[in-house]
Amino acid sequence: MAVIGAHVDSADPLAAAEASGAAAVQFFLADPQGWKKPVEHEHADAIRATDLTVYVHAPYIVNVASTNNRIRIPSRKILDQHAAAAAGIGAKALIVHGGHVTAKDDPGVGVDNWRKTFERAGETGGFPLPILIENTAGGDNAMARRFDRLAMLWDVIGDYGPGFVLDTCHAHAGGEDLVDIADRVKAITGRIDLVHANDSRDAFDSGADRHANLGAGQIDAAVIAEICRAAGSDVIVETPGGPAGQGADIAYLRSALT
Predict the structure, then answer these.
(1) Given 10, 109, 162, 196, which is the most exposed site by the fewest CB atoms within 10 A?
(2) Model-level pTM greater than 0.90?
(3) SS3 195
(4) How do the domains of the chain map onto residue ranges?
(5) Dihedral Cα 210, 84, 160, 97, nearest 10 deg
(6) Which fold has domain 59-237?
(7) Which string of DSSP letters, residue by residue, matches 92-120?
(8) Where does the pLDDT of residue 2 fall: very low under 50, low under 70, confident under 90, or very high at 90 and above?
């Protein structure tokens, strides 16, 4: 049985999990749009002691693929910082978006920048917990929007052992057919470590990252449940509506996957 949980507010993630019936939590350790180093969480001791499965999401601004030194270098730094902080509270993994290069850049440079990220971490003993790369919804030169590019990325970094997060909203909005998508991902990465089970407010291949509650968007909820089943991994809903909305989505998935 999959462990099913929710992305929650970081102020008190355990209380938020209880309110929605989540068996796992995902949250940020700092401003998702900022470069500040995470500080010790107010509830760090309780989080370390919890029986819940804990995931940490790196800030959205992290883009280690970038050819811009002013983005890539601080991205590596805060990825290291968040990995250390996440490990420090007993998180199972740190999730990070695949990033992108600009339209004028060779995507192979972005792929090689990812390789350098893992290579540099290895020089100091490697990351202290698994790094899970997530597919993204937009950007023509994204590293993990379309699966041909994902395959290109994994050919270069696969030996470093990264994990993968499959976001259903991102895949739909990014232009990837959801039929047999778990098998197609596994053929590339060899694994799916986590599913972000999200409906999409927008049309197929829109490039828009706007999540909806299950059954309230453009994706059949049964299709999302089947993806979760095929992935065989933990599941996190990143849907709106607070504890009530997320609680309903969790309850639906638990029933569908039983």
Answers:
(1) 109
(2) yes
(3) strand
(4) 59-237
(5) 10
(6) TIM Barrel (3.20.20)
(7) SEEEEE--B--TTS-HHHHHHHHHHHHHH
(8) confident
